[in-house]
UniProtKB/TrEMBL annotation:
The keyword Ubl conjugation does not apply. Residues 1-18 have a biased composition (Basic and acidic residues). One of its GO terms (molecular function) is DNA binding. This is GreA/GreB family elongation factor. It comes from the Bacteria. The keyword Ribosomal protein does not apply.
Amino acid sequence: MSVAFRRESDEEHKEPRFEIPIPVGPNLVTPNGLAQIETRVAELEARIASDQDAAGLEETKRDLRYWRTRLATAQVAPPPPEGEVGFGSRVRLRHDGAVRDIAIVGDDEADPSAGLISFSAPLARAVMGAFAGEYVDFAGKAEAIEIVEIGAI
């Protein structure tokens, strides 16, 4: 029989599972973000201890490698200077006439639908370093965003 018609196993034909990419740059976190990472690691470790499904177990181990790396590299960012937008700030801003509240957090903590914006996102980069009452450029438009109010998370 020709080798072309022989199949050793289904395993050799599966797509490889790559590691979850680690975001570039420092792994800055808020105290809440650090707690979320610690909780995620504990949940995954518990799942591995009780998981009997081989396919699910490999994916869980892959996720655990990612979260352990994130925990090992996490740096709790110092609070931003008083009155200045920075990592860990809650900001009320006006853009295109609409008022929006955002919080600037770490990459793993970000959830734009909940107003949690990663410090590496374009919006966060545009407003960091600004003060209340200041206008900042955004998306190629001069003075597109007004900083209305700044507070700590």
